Amino acid sequence: xxxxxxxxxxxxxxKATFEYHFIDTYExxxxxxxxxxxxxxxxxANLRDAYCVFKKGELIIRSLFIAEYxxxxxxNHDTRRPRKLLLRRGELRKLEKKVKEKGFTIVPYRxxxxxxxxxxxxxxxxxxxxxxxxxxxIKQKDLKRDMARIKKAY
Length: 154
Fold this sequence. Notes:
Radius of gyration: 18 Å
Oligomer: single chain
Number of helices: 4
Distance between the termini: 40 Å
Number of strands: 9
CATH class: Mainly Beta
Shape: globular
Number of domains: 1
CATH architecture: Beta Barrel
Low-confidence stretches: none
Order of helices and strands: EHEHEEEEEHEEH
Strand order of the largest sheet: 1-8-9-2-7-5-4
Largest sheet: 7 strands, antiparallel
Helix content: 25-40%
Strand content: 25-35%
CATH topology: Small Protein B, Chain: A
């Protein structure tokens, strides 16, 4: 029997690529409680409103929605509690310096499970797009869709 890899779960914040230019990306671990990882494995998480801030030299993700575990008990987690992100000290210092500069922010982009079952968060050092950049993104998306339709017709 050939060993088949299980497809890993992936939750993406699609709005982030529309709103921001990504400068650099990092892979961060997340400190979770027991029922949170169970909900993530079921795909019950949402990155849409999430954002990252520094607090006492630690990177914290706020407003990340992880639904309550359906089979949980009184020890179920709070759905939007702040969670600590795990990065190397050098990466944290570098990110903190950049965020203090005007116009840079840290955006959570992708939440996924590794082969070992750990939840990881891909965060991006990003700079906000101007409205004309957003119009250009829409135009590129429309062109790509039209080209795909033309290829499909032939």
